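Mods, move this if it's the wrong board.
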Amino acid sequence: MEHQKKYAVLVYPDFSLQEITCLTSALTVWFGEKIDIIAGEKKPYRSEEGFTILPDKTVDEADPAEYACVILPGTINPLPALFDEKLIGFLRRGRGTDTLFAAISSAPALLCKAGLLEGRDFTAGFFMQLAVTFPFIDTAHFVHRPVVEDGTAITAIGMFFREFAQTVLNRLGYDVGERFMDTSGEEYTQEELTFYWSEEDYQEFLQELKEFTGED
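Not the wrong board. Structure tokens:
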């Protein structure tokens, strides 16, 4: 199946790459999709792991309705994102659209503030004290499960990043099998751990190699 869809990742201070890379690597490496990186400002943002990312677009330049899915990583420091009115405004513009919002760890709080989880069940990885501090977080719909899918929102607790990725990919129509990136308890033979390119890929590699060796 060919997918002509657009995807986006929102970034903000101290965002977590680790929580979304199962999902983003499958979209880009496995399925050849492109992901726009969107942020409040056109400046470098440092992840909690210490990687710096420069956004492709600002929230003023992007329309959530253009995307099949907007991915929100968690952050160990949610307050800058929660009080970034431009970022929350971008999310609010997604209300009433068909865009899927996929938020993990603390990021569901952003969807709550933008009104995207009104009347919808959700989960999250933030502490309960945060939930009771902010009136826009509807604790009556806060269910404590690894991943929750309700309407146009998929939310997850950070430690279940693999299950989160699998749920989002399945929702988007990608066939990733029943044991997506799950190798727990499996034993492999030596043959299974010996890898070969296809002949076509090997020839492509040899052609690329010539650019580095200077050979004709």
